[in-house]
């Protein structure tokens, strides 16, 4: 059975780091989604995201799409199929409305990880260290979506596997266990 690890949580919590680890250690491909936000330092078009403008974004056909802060984001079932063509286990980073859409469509095929940290000040520090544009950091921290995603939404609690990403070694041990479990079942 094809399966997908869906990763959600606030900005700076480690979603991309988790997805990169799964890719590098286990060749678990990430479903590449589309966004209208500007590219950050170190990001690559077609790998991190497909970077769009409002016009090109309008023309795409999405399974689900959202506005997050000042920008648009969207994902297609075709992109998921492309990842599954490579490996029957894929990963996907989406915010919580996206999580709901995928849980409704794919049910048991989804393993949902909600990432968090003990102290939210850690998030700001990580965004600065990541080298994000200071203005973009302020805009993100002030957005309603960022504030919403600081806490797991009650309606997703049943399906979520909550993972505290404070210590990377512990996170990696947890991920190794999850991959083993999903590969065996
Ligand atoms: N619903 C949905 N959310 C997405 C998609 N792509 C990215 N996101 C979410 O958009 C939010 C903002 O992503 P990004 O600007 O890369 O910021 P980051 O959280 O700091 O890495 C994150 O919560 C992502 O999970 C998508 O295709 N659909
Ligand atoms: N457990 C951790 N401890 C310390 N730094 C981390 C940890 N996990 C991720 N980071 C760093 O925090 C920053 C934000 O991580 P990232 O994966 O880009 O977050 P997100 O995709 O959720 O916005 C990156 O610079 C990353 O290297």
Explain how this protein is built.
This protein has 185 residues and is α/β, with parallel strands linked by helices. The protein has one domain: Rossmann fold (3-Layer(aba) Sandwich), CATH 3.40.50.300. Helix content is 43%, strand content 20%. It has eight helices and eight strands. A four-stranded parallel β-sheet has the order 6-1-7-8, with helices on both faces. It has a four-stranded mixed β-sheet with strand order 3-2-5-4. Strand 4 and strand 5 form a beta hairpin. Helix 1 (15-26) crosses helix 8 (168-184). The chain starts with a strand and ends with a helix. The mean pLDDT is 96. Residues 11-17, 126, 129-130, 165, 168, 171 line the site of adenosine-5'-diphosphate.
Key structural traits:
single chain; 185 residues; alpha/beta; Rossmann fold; 4-stranded parallel β-sheet; 4-stranded mixed β-sheet; 8 helices; binds guanosine-5'-diphosphate; P-loop_NTPase; EC 2.7.4.8; kinase
């Amino acid at each position: 059975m094809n399966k997908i690890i869906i990763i959600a949580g606030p900005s700076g919590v480690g979603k991309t780091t988790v997805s990169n680890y799964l890719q590098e250690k286990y060749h678990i491909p990430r479903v590449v989604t589309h966004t209208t936000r500007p590219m950050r330092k170190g990001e690559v078009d077609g790998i991190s995201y497909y970077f769009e403008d409002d016009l090109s974004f309008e023309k795409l056909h999405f399974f689900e799409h959202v506005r997050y802060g000042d920008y648009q984001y969207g994902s297609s079932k075709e992109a998921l199929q492309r990842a599954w063509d490579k490996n029957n286990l894929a990963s996907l980073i989406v915010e919580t409305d996206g999580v709901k859409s995928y849980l409704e469509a794919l049910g048991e095929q989804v393993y949902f990880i909600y990432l968090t940290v003990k102290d939210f000040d850690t998030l700001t520090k990580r965004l600065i260290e990541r080298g994000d544009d200071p203005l973009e950091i302020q805009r993100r921290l002030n957005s309603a979506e960022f504030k919403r995603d600081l806490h797991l939404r009650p309606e997703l609690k049943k399906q979520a596997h909550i993972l505290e990403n404070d210590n990377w070694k512990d996170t990696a041990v947890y991920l190794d266990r999850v991959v083993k479990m999903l590969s065996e079942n």
